[in-house]
Amino acid sequence: MTIAAAVMAVVGFAVGFWLRPGAGAVTPDSPVSGDEELGQMAVGHVPSVGVHALSIAAVTPEGQRTATVGAPLDGTFEIGSITKGVTGLLYADMVERGEVRPETRLGDLLDLGDADAADITLEELSQQRSGLPRLGGGLGFFARTALDTLLARNPYAETPDEVVDQVRAAKVGDKEPVYSNLGYAVLGHALASAAGTTYPELVAERIAEPLGLSSFTVPLSPDQLADDAVQGRDRAGRAQQAWADEGFAPAGGIRASAADMATLAQGLLDQTAPGVAALDPQADFGDGLQIGAAWFTEKVGGRTVTWHNGGTGGFRSWFGMDREHGVAVYLAGATTVDLDEIGFALLRDVARS
């Protein structure tokens, strides 16, 4: 096959892929599982098209509430970069345990040789000011990820060793605030190395098991998805491959149910969760944001909100807390529609209800 023919074949496949029928969107008439009032409150903020299932959790001083729309109540959603917040909890917990220090060098934990990145500290990684780029891998990596995204495949299907290779080859820039998936991926693997385990096992042992999060997992491949895994979809409703891999898992690989996220939120609000110090702001991040270990804090409508969001090929998510008043909201959708504004609005409404 000639190069031109191969290109035409790929283009033809992509066109057919993008024109295939999608799933229906959530509407005010969609059935709610769990807390009906909470589900309808969330649906009231959702755009009329583009969101195909919802998972909602809320915590107030009165207790926990959960709901799903267009999915089973125990269905798991990809929480995307909220996983970075979990990696931040692991970092803060390991600092508290004395297993690592903020000034611990990346090269002390991973085989980076004399690479520039070897001198990056864990604190710099945790506060997104390591100097690492958003992604690594060069032009070949970007070309592959672009094609994977076009074909609804996971563009981050790397191994931990491949992530370390990318960090070893990366040019380290100024230590200014720059949101880096690569930085958080390697932070998670460095923490796992310090603990003598893998990142998925570290999440299980330090977060999921102590808090009793039964569906809070890091699947390593689509084949490992449980029966309760909700299908991710784009705005048009087309199915997207699960982002299940180990390499970039610390930056965005966790799946969880609404009940899991409610329990995690409760632990963060009452300060019984491991690594809760990660929530505390430590540095300015620009645009009115401060950052702790992954978690952002800002003033919104007179409230101080600590939050993180997430996005994968078929999911968007948002998790925010008004720690002063003991209120938290988690929202995830099978969609590529941004949910940040909806999350902030839902947090406000839950606090008022």
Task: Please explain how this structure is put together.
- It comes from Aeromicrobium camelliae.
- Belongs to the beta-lactamase family.
- This is Class A beta-lactamase-related serine hydrolase.
- GO terms for molecular function: hydrolase activity.
- Keywords: Hydrolase.
- This protein is an alpha+beta fold and 353 residues long.
- The protein has a single domain, classed as 3-Layer(aba) Sandwich (Beta-lactamase).
- Helices cover 35% and strands 17% of the residues.
- It contains eleven helices and 13 strands.
- The strands form three sheets. A nine-stranded antiparallel beta sheet has the order 1-3-2-13-12-11-10-9-8, with helices on both faces.
- The protein is globular and about 60 Å long.
- It starts with a helix and ends with a helix.
- The N terminus is likely disordered.
